[in-house]
Amino acid sequence: MNILIVEDDAVCLKQFTECATECGLTPFCAVTPNKAEEIFYAHPGEIPIVICDWMFTESPPDNQGIDLVHKLKSNALGEIYIVMATVKGSDEEYRLAMGRGADNFINKPFPSAKLCADLMQAIEVIRSRSEANKMMIANTSTMRELRKKAILFAQSISSKDTVLITGETGTGKEYFARLIHDYSPRAHNAYLIVNCSAIPEILAESELFGHCKGAYTMANCDRKGRFQQANGGTLFLDEIGDLTLSTQAKILRAVEGGEVQKLGEDVSVNVDTRVISATNRSLLEMIDKQTFRQDLYARLAVFELHLPPLSERKEDILPIANHYLSLIGSERGRELSFDKDAENWLLEQSWPYNVRSIQRLVKRCVYLASEDVISADDLKRFETAPPRGPTTSDRGIASIPEVTEMLLRNEQYELMEEQRAYEKQCMMTALRVAKGNQSTARESLKMTTSEWRTRFKEYKLEETGFD
Fold it and tell me: Does domain 135-308 have CATH number 3.40.50.300?
C-alpha cells in the first residue's frame, strides 16, 4: 500500500518516511503542495494514505496544506485517508481540517511509536472501507446518492451528531450504519451493535449502561455497558423503536448529557459515544400513540437517512440477485445464471423483506436447482418452500445430505437458533436475579407458565442448578 508524505521539514520528513516503511507502506515524498498533486495524479487510485503538513513556507497563502487536503479528498478516484500534521494545533485548526476532509489530526512533535500507531489505524480504516464498498451490491443512482449522503453525515464537523436510519427490514440499515462509522473520525475506535428488540426490559439497563459488583445476585464484578464500551467510537442501536418508554428515558440521558450511570451505582460517568439508531417502524406514529418519546426522537435524528424498499428501486433487484447467485454458487462450486423469464419474474415481485428475501430465494436455487440456468418455474417453485423430498438428476444435484445442509444453513433456521440461545441466556440471568425463584423469574420475562415450563425443560435448566 502506498503513502504520500507532504512535508517541507527535513527532520519530520525523515521520521514520517521511516515510520511509513516500518508499517509496510511504500512512501512517495513531496516538499510542496504542487509536487504532491503532481505525484498524486500521476498514480490515480493508487495512493490511499496521505500525511500532510499544515504550513509550507515556500508556497503562497492559498496553496497550503489545508487547501491540498480539500483538493485530494475531492478528486480521489479511490479510498483515501488523510492525516493532517501541525505544530500545536488549535481546536479551530482541528475543526477546519476535519471539515475540509482530513481523517486524523496530529500535533508535532510526536514520538515515532504514536505515528506508527496512527498509520496502522489508517491502514485498517482503508481496508474496512474497501470491504464496505464491496458490500455495496446495488450501485444505482439512488443508492449512490444515499451513500454520498451517509458519508457527509459521517464527516460532519461534530462527529458526535446522531443519525437515525429508517427503512423496511432488509434495506441495508446495518450496512449504512457501519459505513458512517468507517468514514468518520471515530473509525479507528470501537463499533458496537445492540439489537434492541432482543433485550428483555429486565436486562436492558445492565446491557446498555453496565452494573457494579453486588448490584444484584450473581453480579460478582463490575461490568461496563455498551455506551462505555463504545466510548470514543460508535454505538449502533438497531430497532430502537422496540425499546420500552422506561429504557428510552435512560437512553435520552446518555445521548443528551453524555453520561451514563451503572446499575447499583450513584456516580455518573462521562462518555463520548456517537449513537446511530435504526428502525423499521414509524417513530412519528409511535410518538402520536405515546409509545415513543418525542424528546428522544429529536435527539436521535440530528441527521436522518431513509432507505427505500426494493419495490421503489426495481433497478437494484437484478444486480443483487446476480451477486448472491455468483457468491453462493461459488461456495458450492457451481456457475449459475438466470434466464430472461426468470429475470422478468424477479422484477415483478414485491420482495417484502427486500434483500433478505432475494438472498434466501437464491440460496434455495443454488442448493436445489438441477440445471445451471435458473428458470422462472424454478423461482416459483423455490419461492414458496423447499420441496418435500430431494430432487435427483444424473449429476446428483440436491441429494439428501445437500438438502439437509441447505436447511441447516437457511437464514430463518440460523436466526431461530440464535434467538433460542439468547432466550436461554435471559432465563438463566432472570433466575440468578430472582435467586432461583422460578415464579419471579418467569414474571420478570413476562412468560406464561406453560411457556416457562416448556422452555425450562427444553433448555435443561434443571441441570444448571435452578431446578
Answer: yes
